[in-house]
Amino acid sequence: MSLPDRKEAEVRRLLVQRTAEPVPADLAERALADGARLLRRRRVLRTVLWGVVLAGLLALTAWSLAARPWSEPPPTTTPPAVDW
After folding, report:
1. pLDDT above 90 as % of the chain
2. Which end of the chain is less congested by CB atoms within 10 angstroms, N or C?
3. H or E stretch including 73?
């Protein structure tokens, strides 16, 4: 028997046995509730992450407006006197 024929024969044997366990009656409802809970958690996590990103951008903007990091820092010493 070749490999595909052997696999097909094994599948056919398993289908003929039909010793499947019974499925709980409320399986669909539980799966729906689990899926809804998963979606809620993802939505809350996404909202929290966006809030953190926006708060970080707001803090960066406030700091840059207050500190003005792009401007030249004030001199720490006086310039040398020039004798003309």
Report:
1. 50
2. C
3. none
Tokens in use for 27? 């399986």
pTM over 0.90: no
Model confidence pLDDT, tens digit, residues 32-66:
999 999 999 999 999 999 999 999 999 999 999 99
75 to 4, 23, 31, 71, 78: CA distances (angstroms):
82, 79, 68, 12, 7
Q: How high is the mean pLDDT of the chain?
A: 88
Q: How far apart (Å, rounded) are the C-alpha atoms in residues 34 and 42?
A: 12
C-alpha distances (whole Å) from 12 to each of 8, 16, 20, 46, 78 are: 6, 6, 14, 46, 94
